[in-house]
Specification:
The complex is a heterodimer of chains A (116) and B (115). Chain A has no helices and twelve strands. By secondary structure, chain A is mainly β. In chain A, strands 2, 5, 6, 10, 11 and 12 form a six-stranded mixed β-sheet that branches. The termini of chain A are far apart. Chain B has strands spanning 5-7, 10-13, 19-24, 31-37, 43-50, 53-57, 65-68, 75-79, 88-95, 105-106, 110-114. In chain B, the strands form two sheets. In chain B, strands 2, 4, 5, 6, 9, 10 and 11 form a seven-stranded mixed β-sheet that branches. In chain B, strands 1-3-8-7 form a four-stranded antiparallel β-sheet, with no helix packed on it. Chain B is globular. Classes of the chains: A mainly beta (116), B mainly beta (115). Chains A and B meet through strand 6, strand 10 and strand 11 of A and strand 4, strand 5, strand 6, strand 9 and strand 10 of B.
């Protein structure tokens, strides 16, 4: 069965600093990987996804993530964090369902705090 | 921009009562899902729904749970007899068909509190 590990529960960075959020996955086949962000009182917003091809994927809000098969990782990065990026970030792996669509398995999330 | 909506945002119910959580997926999406997040825990998959039937369900989704798409726009989750451990945030999601079928769009969630 698939699983996702986000080793950092909380991360604090200063505004303008770079950010890297770690994600490791376990999945038997080529994974479909996602990063979602959740702001307080909001739903989960899709930041970016990896299905195949270029291992460096770009997302919304200036985020990017790199798929490294050898390390089973899909870390999220941003070169310069803004105060509005403070939120909870979830990494997820998708398993294709025989009936169509996919089932997401989420990590426990990383809470990002941005210091001004 | 189209979005998934959920009502109510917060539902309080007594143990043993039936609750129905409502979702309006994005128009023209084909796949529908429910997930839940118990406070302090991971977001967990409950069920997926396609072509008017359940395509997969988790172990959590026992006989107390049911889903329905009663018309062309709503997607509901019913819990027949709520338990204290059903208290959680419930998220609805939908995804389009074709090559974008794996991109799920989530609603803001319904916080269910069972007392």
């Amino acid at each position: 069965a698939q699983s996702v590990t986000q080793p950092d529960i909380h991360i604090t960075v200063s505004e303008g600093a770079s950010l890297e959020l770690r994600c490791n996955y376990s999945y038997g086949a080529t994974p479909y990987l996602f990063w979602y962000v959740q702001s307080p009182g909001q739903g989960l917003q899709l930041l970016l996804k990896y299905f195949s091809g270029d291992t460096l994927v770009q997302g919304i809000k200036g985020f990017e993530a790199e798929f490294k098969r050898s390390q089973s990782s899909f870390n999220l990065r941003k070169p310069s964090v803004h105060w509005s990026d403070a939120a909870e970030y979830f990494c997820a792996v998708g398993a294709i369902l025989t009936g169509g669509g996919n089932k997401l398995t989420f990590g426990t999330g990383t809470q990002l705090k941005v210091e001004l | 921009e189209p979005e998934v909506t959920q009502t109510p945002s917060h539902q309080v119910t007594q143990m043993g009562q039936e609750v129905i959580l409502r979702c309006v997926p994005i128009s023209n999406h084909l796949y529908f899902y429910w997930y839940r997040q118990i406070l302090g825990q991971k977001v967990e998959f409950l069920v997926s729904f396609y072509n008017n039937e359940i395509s997969e369900k988790s172990e959590i989704f026992d006989d107390q749970f049911s889903v329905e798409r009663p018309d062309g726009s709503n997607f509901t989750l019913k819990i027949r007899s709520t338990k204290l451990e059903d208290s959680a945030m419930y998220f609805c999601a939908s995804s389009p068909g074709g090559s974008l079928a794996y991109e799920q769009y989530f609603g803001p969630g319904t916080r269910l509190t069972v007392t």
